């Protein structure tokens, strides 16, 4: 398992694949490499998941029940132009590759495939536009070194647990964006939880004790009724 990826921010991948053995193989391989995986076995379910949850990458087959991969990517691109989409399909004709890319796929891989190649392509797609999240993040006097798993404010090293560090990185990677408790819980703890559960509030309180309490300039802020945001004010 790629512990580094999981620890920092578990990437969520949606697989839309109707062949059960392929879906199970992908689920096992990607989970072992630190990704959170959801699976849809037809195009309609795939569209529902893709439009109701955030995914870092969507992997599509073309020949799907109820709604084809062609139709699915058109809808995804219409609603989420920046979504990362990879076609994984047995259709190996040049015209199919061209059509897939012209419809907006970021990559196109033909079955049968080597998992190592698929994994390399996935990582390449996920690196695009996220250079800061793979190295250092700087906000005010807060510095996060993701590679070394270290956070400091000024010259003070912050002694964070793995979950606290993952939570801080998630907030910092989306600085200025208000994140709901549900989104935080799904991303950091991989749980869907009742709104009365205070696991996120407790974790934020403990994180603030280390990140904000010793300093005059507070970075973690509560947005009542919504969630939390990390930003300099």
Commentary on this structure:
- 41% of the residues lie in helices and 20% in strands.
- The longest helix has 13 residues, at 20-32.
- Residues 1-8 and 129-133 have low confidence and may be disordered.
- With 233 residues, it is of the alpha/beta class.
- The strands form three sheets. Strands 2-1-3-4-5 form a five-stranded parallel beta sheet, with helices on both faces. Strands 6-7-8-9 form a four-stranded antiparallel beta sheet, covered by helices on one side.
Concise synopsis of the structure shown:
By secondary structure, the chain is of the alpha/beta class. It contains nine helices and twelve strands. A hairpin with a 2-residue loop joins strand 8 and strand 9.
Shape: elongated
Strands side by side in the biggest sheet:
2-1-3-4-5
Strand fraction: 15-25%
- Please count the beta strands (DSSP E, at least 2 residues each): 12
Intertermini distance = 38 Å
Structural category: alpha/beta
Radius of gyration: 19 Å
Number of helices: 9
Q: Stretches where pLDDT falls below 50 for ≥5 residues?
A: 1-8, 129-133
Range of helix content = 40-55%
For the largest beta-sheet, the strand count, sense and barrel status come to: 5 strands, parallel
Order of helices and strands: HEHEHEHEHEHEEEEHEHHEE
Overall average pLDDT = 85
